[in-house]
């Protein structure tokens, strides 16, 4: 088999006729930049690709999250006093079984099971339901003050009542992420807050009085699968606004090709990857603080303003942790390469994968501000054409005040989503609104 280069590989996996139905309502479909296929991660994706219908972006995403969890939280990059370990959450968004989201994890899981059997067997779980349940799987040992009798004398002593979970690594794989999002919407469910703590620091606790279980130094990563329709329906306004959504990388994925016979990857192709992965894991677990090389620092200075600039609306909220996500991705690429510093190639790879995630997020969440009334008005203007405020009031069932409608239109105008013009009438001139794009 001839060697396939990254450029040839990307060209090979472009959208086919099977995607035309989806593409008919899209302005674009995100493409994976060849720069993301760096080092061991890139070699793994290119080697696996001829044997799977999975999206190459999905295979790559599963790989970087699994590796980041397996190596634990000791290796990290630093931002002032904050440590960023290789802890990532990724949600793969596609069309039910046709997106081949689950298929992308199969070769990754197999290879990792050859490198770390116990971790693969014991530390990959599914079934997120509550914050307390998540904490339980990475919980600390717990002692309680109990009355102990010795030689007919009673005394109060601290007694070990729960040995806890000594392995703080946990990779949560959720093939039905919509179920998790629905649970999170339940009153009193603490899962969203605990998952945010897990991404930030790994020190987990709830404010529930009857839940004494806590975890320190937890290293939790999440791989989630969901359809685009389910995501829009179940990711609530609260979760978008409170920072849950921006702790995930959102990747649009689709079936890359048709393989009706579906043969496994030959052992002679997997064995070199397994050996390299084992070496990378051993190396990574011996590392501590990784910094950027001088050249990578110069590149970081160039891209940092764009990563931190921010923007209003729902897309801005989802993408607001861009710099932290890129930093963690660059750390993973460096460790996969067994490098004790983040080099330019690692940062370029991280930026390429981030651009794919950003383009996916804009496709999924774009055109909406996260404010229900503004989103409804924008959708109406985009589908029905120009309307006056009176037309909009009627369309909304006459349940909104003129002040509410005008405020929503003003917010849309400030971010360039709509524009207005004046139309002469027999009476007062009418203000007409239309979508800008």
Overview of the molecule:
By secondary structure, the chain is of the alpha/beta class. 46% of the residues lie in helices and 16% in strands. It has helices at residues 6-12, 20-23, 39-48, 56-70, 101-115, 117-122, 131-136, 177-184, 191-200, 228-234, 237-241, 267-284, 294-308, 313-318, 322-336, 344-365, 372-384, 389-395, 402-414; strands spanning 76-79, 82-85, 89-93, 124-125, 142-150, 153-162, 169-174, 219-226, 249-252, 289-290, 387-388, 418-423, 430-435. The strands form 4 sheets. A 5-stranded parallel sheet has the order 4-7-8-3-9, sandwiched between helices. Strands 2-1-10 form a 3-stranded mixed sheet. Strand 12 (418-423) and strand 13 (430-435) form a beta hairpin. The chain is globular.
Outline the fold blueprint:
Blueprint (H helix, E strand, L loop, with lengths): L5 H7 L7 H4 L15 H10 L7 H15 L5 E4 L2 E4 L3 E5 L7 H15 L1 H6 L1 E2 L5 H6 L5 E9 L2 E10 L6 E6 L2 H8 L6 H10 L18 E8 L1 H7 L2 H5 L7 E4 L14 H18 L4 E2 L3 H15 L4 H6 L3 H15 L7 H22 L6 H13 L2 E2 H7 L6 H13 L3 E6 L6 E6 L2
Parallel strand pairs: 1-10, 3-8, 3-9, 4-7, 7-8
Antiparallel strand pairs: 1-2, 5-6, 11-13, 12-13
